[in-house]
Amino acid sequence: MAADFLELSGIRKEFGEFVALKGVSLGVRQGELVCFLGPSGCGKTTLLRIVAGLEVQSAGTIVQAGRDISRLPPMERDYGIVFQSYALFPNLDVTANVAYGLVNRRMPRARREERVRELLALVGLPDAGAKFPGQLSGGQQQRIAIARALATSPGLLLLDEPLSALDARVRVRLRGEIRALQQRLGITTILVTHDQEEALSMADRIVVMKEGAIEQIGAPSEVYLDPATPFVADFVGKTNLLPAQAAGDGRVLVGGQHFECDTRAAPGGGALRVFFRPEAVQMRGVNGSTPNSADAVIEKVEFLGAYSRVTFRLGGIDQPLYADLSVNDMSWFRLKPGDTLRVSVPPERLRVFEAP
């Protein structure tokens, strides 16, 4: 197997007595988009800044394209970077902003102007060259920031929460454009975000981080459907996460309810956590013989557009549970608070963890 384009080995970062990164190791393959995902303070931005040389690691090495860049200053590393704040020069027009890195590299003027035209066309703003940043929308400014980051044809693109300052509709549109552009160029990219939907929709692989360490690395579908830890299950997407006890014969006891499931991932038999997604809850065709079925009392119904989120309770379980139902299912059941109906969760949709 070919070596990773970017290899991080044992990256540790200390700020005084505070340990921000606890020996992080991972590889990024050529041409893939890897997302660092986690809550505020988990170390994801610090790790990105270390890759960029904007922070110096306390220990560990970084190898890019076979070259050890662990102690190189930023200007000697091969990357382009886009910040949350865009960081465009307000006193320079768009052409000068995009060409900034090319001027520093002493590219001839004619070639520089040609390169800027190429990049503005690439990001869908071919006529914006004479405008100043203040004349552009937030989404347009972010496109210009991306064009500037790509100007020097870097081997690595770093995106530090590039969409978080934008409104929801622009953010959704622009993340699709960035992903399509990254795939078209085949540029190796690291994206930092705390937005789970952004990570799931854009990344080839997601690196979920917690308190300076990696909890899980995997494709978006793996991280969502097969979380490695209770933290990942709870952080990525909406979830039902319940305390449980082993009950033998492939069953667990949650409150007063028994559930069939695969318990091999938690062989200890002590305190457990049971996890399932809201969309795993079934209501159609459920009866007393359906595995993992029980009577549910509806507490709340929230209309969320393409689906509705139903809050319900099962007998003997203290905490509320959630089910996501399609528009068709909602039309069929016409649920309202106070209703009682039979629900189930298929055994294969339950995941069991040992309690931390």
Tally of helical segments: 9
CATH topology of the largest domain: Rossmann fold
The CATH architecture classification of the largest domain is 3-Layer(aba) Sandwich
Q: What's the story with the biggest beta sheet? A: 6 strands, mixed
| Fourth-tier CATH superfamily name of the largest domain | P-loop containing nucleotide triphosphate hydrolases
How many whole angstroms does the radius of gyration measure?
25 Å
Pick out the low-confidence regions. none
Number of strands: 19
Quickly count the domains: 2
**Shape, principal axes of CA atoms:** elongated
Strand order of the largest sheet: 6-7-8-3-9-10
Helix content: 25-40%
Distance between the termini: 36 Å
What class do helices, strands and sheet pairing give? alpha+beta
Which series of helices and strands comes N to C?
EEEHEEEHHHEHEHEEHHEEEEEEEHEE
What's the structural blueprint in terms of helices and strands?
Blueprint: E1 6-15, E2 18-28, E3 33-37, H1 44-52, E4 59-64, E5 67-68, E6 80-82, H2 94-104, H3 109-122, H4 138-150, E7 156-160, H5 168-185, E8 188-193, H6 196-202, E9 205-210, E10 213-218, H7 220-225, H8 230-235, E11 240-246, E12 251-254, E13 257-260, E14 271-276, E15 293-303, E16 307-314, E17 321-326, H9 327-333, E18 340-344, E19 351-354
Parallel strand pairs: 3-8, 3-9, 6-7, 7-8
Antiparallel strand pairs: 1-2, 1-4, 4-5, 9-10, 11-12, 11-14, 12-13, 14-19, 15-16, 15-18, 16-17
Helix pairs in contact: 2-3, 2-4, 3-4
